[in-house]
Amino acid sequence: EAGRDARLGRISHYCASLEIRGCGEKLLAGAYDAALLRDPADLYELTPEALWPLERMGQTLAQKLVAAVQARRQPDLATFLQSLGIDELGPAAAKLLQQHYGTLARVRAATVEELTAIHGIGPEIAASVVSGLVRRAPLIERLLRYVTPRETATSPATGPLAFPAGGSPRDPGV
Question: Is 15 helix (H, G, I), strand (E, B) or coil?
Answer without folding.
Answer: helix
